[in-house]
Amino acid sequence: MAGSRERFNYTTDSAEILTLTLDESNGRATVSGAGRITPDQTVPGNSKPQGFKPRYCLAFLTSNPQIRRRFIVGDPAAVPNVVAPGATLTAAVYANADDTPPATAAWSVTYYSGEQRAVVPAVAAPDTGLDEGTT
Mean pLDDT by 10-residue block, N- to C-terminus, for the chain (135 residues)? Predict the structure, then answer.
């Protein structure tokens, strides 16, 4: 469910801090009870490079397997908690649109994807040395 968007810090596998704009509720989700992606008010990071895809996991609500969500895993230290067999995470469940605080529940992780970066081609190819007939 898309809601308000907020900027969050994301730590890459190479310890670089990037700022991602995410759905606020999904960005505040926790992995194994500890916050792993933080609002960027304290340390603003670099903008996300083109072709970069953050690591994430897919999970379903343990009490209702038909409810599914995608969670960004913002800290590489949380990866062992997500990829372990039978991994779970704790996150809010949004049942309705009223102003009551959402309840938290257990989510069972079904899939994990590591971060991906696009391969950037060389800026310029060297001259082949062939004569093209130009003067």
Answer: 72 85 70 47 68 89 90 84 82 66 82 85 67 65
Which two tokens mark 26? 């999904």
Residue 45 located in a structural domain: no
Could you tell me if residue 120 is inside a domain?
Answer: no
Contact 26, 70 (CB under 8 A): yes
Which domain covers residue 24, as residue numbers? Answer: 5-40+53-113
Distance CA 130, CA 113 (A): 45
Q: Which residue type does 48 have? A: K
Give the distance from CA 37 to its chain's centroid.
9
The angle subtended at Cα 38 by Cα 37 and Cα 42, nearest 5°, is: 150
- Contact residues for 38 (Cβ-Cβ < 8 A; gap 6+): 8, 9, 74
